[in-house]
């Protein structure tokens, strides 16, 4: 709160004082009052005006400065009302009460949204579990009626299953409180499960699937990591080149302090201009235009989960040649000590 | 014949599971009364239990704990829930395996076969496998007949073992492939064909020329 700005704001009041003073001065000259009385009167009037203005200025300054300072230093600005005391002047009180009401109604409004989002997420999670049942029975039916149904039916059911999984992990990636258990997990086990899950797709597409050096223990959540691996392998399959001899290689490299898992494929790669944006929600880029199936959600969810689990993720790629996704697990001696 | 009890409230899945298990040569029964689940299970006296976690009116994990008080029957938990906590809880209550829906039917059968294999090995106190007059030694990867020894590669041994476990029955290419992949051998279709013809050639050289028969569009059979 600047003094000059305050004075400018009070200009009308000051002009009134000055006019009042001039009128009295002229009257006293007209009535031939003694000069000393006139001087005393002028002095009195001046001090009265000055005292009045500065008292008002000071009490307002105290309030507004505290308010502005708190506002600037707060992370969540909407909480500023909680940090200031009730102002001691009338306009301030009106303002304070109004702000309080506005704040309250806004919070209630937000609360409503929060609840509806949480309800919706809970519903989605439940729905995913429900929808897994018909998917499971469909798979069993296909298996029991082999010969009558071709493998391509199973493939489509698998796709439905994988998209349903994506929904589940998307919902989970946004609220962390949902359970995950970080413990020592065999990387070979995770790779094996992922491979088995995608076996039919890989064989059907004639993709050469090779796994090396994965006999490592990593610290992660098995379910989430399995989902991440599954997404990456699915991406590799989705963005393979049209011609044959597609290769997916999964291998791990170990350092003193970290293990890096590589998911390498010789697919279409990612255009250099798209690379910085692949983790953005719903970003599809160059490959999204050429591949109809892109949703732009896969890598976004993978990145979110990696962040939650504390794994690093990096992609090195040359468009038209290869894509190499690297996931970094830091080793933690605390867990290995025994 | 091994008897498997299916504890699953979804009628469609339960029926299909039953058919799947029967086709695989097991005797399968569905449980329909969940009110007295623990007693019914005890009375059924099955060889293995497929137990769903979400059951009407009760929780599969708690039911498992109840069962474990009186019985050591092998239990595979089957569930559509995919949280790590459920798995840990199930295993700590004494489940032998844990599979999430929708499972691959071949994988489910493989898991069941593995559990029975383990139990039978313990029961007989030996892991010796025999084919005709040959002793099969999976750990060494050899077939032994008196002083003679036939060396098999890892893939060939995996294939031979699965055929041996299902002697006289058709083993599909898919089952063989799944078993190989489950053992971290990620081979493709061609490699499987090559491995089988190599195994055939080796067996034939060892004195069993017609051991493995091909059933067109169905799979392979190891004959006695």
Any chance you could write out the topology, listing elements then pairs?
The complex is a heterodimer of chains A (338) and B (224).
Chain A: H1 3-9, H2 11-30, H3 35-73, H4 90-144, H5 151-174, E1 183-186, H6 187-197, H7 199-204, E2 208-212, E3 217-220, H8 222-238, E4 247-254, E5 258-265, H9 285-290, H10 298-309, E6 312-318, E7 322-330, H11 333-336
Parallel strand pairs in A: 2-4
Antiparallel strand pairs in A: 1-3, 4-5, 5-7, 6-7
Chain B: E1 3-7, H1 11-23, E2 27-30, H2 37-44, E3 48-52, E4 54-55, E5 58-59, H3 60-68, E6 75-79, H4 84-92, E7 97-100, H5 105-124, E8 129-131, E9 134-137, E10 142-145, E11 148-151, H6 154-165, H7 173-182, H8 189-205, E12 212-215, E13 219-222
Parallel strand pairs in B: 1-2, 1-3, 3-6, 6-7
Antiparallel strand pairs in B: 4-5, 8-9, 9-10, 10-11, 12-13
Helix pairs in contact in B: 2-3, 6-8
List keywords for this structure.
heterodimer; A: alpha+beta; 5-stranded mixed β-sheet; two-stranded antiparallel sheet; B: alpha/beta; 4-stranded antiparallel β-sheet; 8 helices; elongated
**Strand/helix succession of chain B:** EHEHEEEHEHEHEEEEHHHEE
Cα-to-Cα separation, first versus last residue of chain B = 19 Å
Overall pLDDT of chain A: 87
Mean pLDDT of chain B: 87
Estimate the strand proportion of chain B: 15-25%
Question: Major beta sheet of chain A, specifics?
Answer: 5 strands, mixed
Describe the oligomeric state of these chains in a short phrase.
heterodimer
User: Which strand order spans the largest sheet of chain B, edge to edge or round the barrel?
Assistant: 2-1-3-6-7
Q: Ranges of chain B with pLDDT <50 over ≥5 residues?
A: none
Distance between the termini of chain A: 63 Å
| Low-pLDDT residue intervals, each spanning 5 or more residues of chain A | none
List how many beta strands of chain A DSSP finds: 7
| Biggest sheet details of chain B | 5 strands, parallel
Assign the structural class of chain A, choosing from mainly alpha, mainly beta, alpha/beta, alpha+beta, or little secondary structure.
alpha+beta
Summarize the helix and strand pattern of chain A as letters.
Answer: HHHHHEHHEEHEEHHEEH
Report the total helices of chain B. Answer: 8
């Amino acid at each position: 709160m600047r003094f000059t700005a305050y004075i400018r704001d009070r200009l009308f009041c000051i002009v009134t004082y000055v006019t009042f003073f001039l009128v009295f001065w002229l009257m006293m000259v007209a009535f031939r009052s003694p000069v000393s009385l006139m001087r005393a009167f002028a002095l009195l009037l001046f001090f009265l005006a000055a005292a009045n203005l500065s008292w008002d200025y000071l009490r307002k300054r105290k309030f507004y400065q505290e308010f502005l300072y708190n506002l600037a230093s707060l992370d969540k600005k909407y909480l500023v009302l909680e940090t200031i005391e009730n102002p001691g002047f009338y306009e301030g009180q009106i303002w304070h009460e109004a702000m309080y009401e506005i704040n309250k109604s806004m919070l209630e409004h937000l609360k409503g949204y929060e609840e509806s989002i949480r309800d919706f997420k809970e519903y989605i999670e439940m729905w995913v579990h429900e929808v897994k049942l018909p998917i499971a029975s469909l798979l069993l039916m296909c298996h029991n009626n082999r010969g009558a149904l071709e493998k391509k039916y199973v493939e489509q059911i698998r796709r439905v299953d994988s998209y349903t999984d994506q929904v589940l992990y998307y919902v989970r990636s946004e609220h962390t409180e949902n359970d995950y258990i970080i413990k020592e997990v065999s990387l070979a086990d995770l790779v094996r499960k992922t491979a088995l899950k995608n076996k039919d797709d890989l064989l059907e597409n004639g993709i050469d699937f090779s796994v090396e050096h994965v006999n490592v223990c990593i610290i992660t959540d098995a379910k989430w990591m399995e989902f991440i691996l599954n997404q990456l392998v699915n991406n590799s399959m989705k963005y393979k080149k049209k011609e044959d001899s597609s290769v997916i290689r999964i291998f791990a490299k170990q350092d003193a302090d970290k293990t890096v898992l590589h998911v390498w494929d010789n697919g279409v790669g990612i255009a250099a201009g798209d690379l910085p944006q692949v983790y953005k929600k719903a970003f599809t880029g160059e490959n999204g235009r050429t591949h109809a199936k892109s949703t732009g959600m896969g890598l976004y969810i993978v990145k979110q989960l990696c962040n939650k689990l504390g794994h690093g993720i990096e992609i090195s790629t040359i468009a038209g040649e290869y894509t190499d996704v690297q996931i970094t697990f830091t080793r933690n001696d605390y867990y290995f000590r025994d | 014949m091994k008897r498997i009890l299916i504890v699953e409230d979804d009628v469609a899945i339960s029926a299909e599971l039953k058919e799947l298990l029967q086709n695989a040569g097991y005797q399968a029964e569905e449980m329909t009364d969940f009110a007295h689940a623990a007693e019914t299970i005890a009375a059924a006296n099955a060889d293995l239990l497929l137990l769903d976690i979400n059951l009407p009116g009760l929780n599969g994990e708690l039911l498992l704990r109840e069962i474990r008080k009186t019985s050591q029957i092998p239990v595979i938990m089957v569930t559509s829930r995919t949280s790590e906590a459920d798995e840990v809880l199930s295993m700590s209550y004494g489940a032998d395996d844990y599979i999430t829906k929708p499972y691959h039917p071949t994988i489910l059968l493989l898991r069941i076969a593995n559990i029975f294999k383990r139990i039978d090995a313990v029961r007989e106190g030996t892991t010796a496998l025999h084919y005709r007059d040959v002793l099969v030694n999976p750990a060494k990867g050899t077939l032994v007949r008196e002083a003679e020894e036939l060396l098999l590669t890892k893939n060939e041994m995996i294939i031979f073992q699965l055929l041996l476990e299902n002697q006289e029955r058709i083993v599909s290419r898919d089952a063989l492939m799944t078993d190989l992949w489950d053992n971290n051998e990620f081979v493709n279709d061609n490699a499987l064909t090559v491995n089988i013809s190599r195994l055939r050639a080796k067996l034939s050289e060892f004195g069993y020329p017609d051991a493995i028969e091909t059933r067109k569009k169905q799979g392979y059979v190891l004959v006695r």
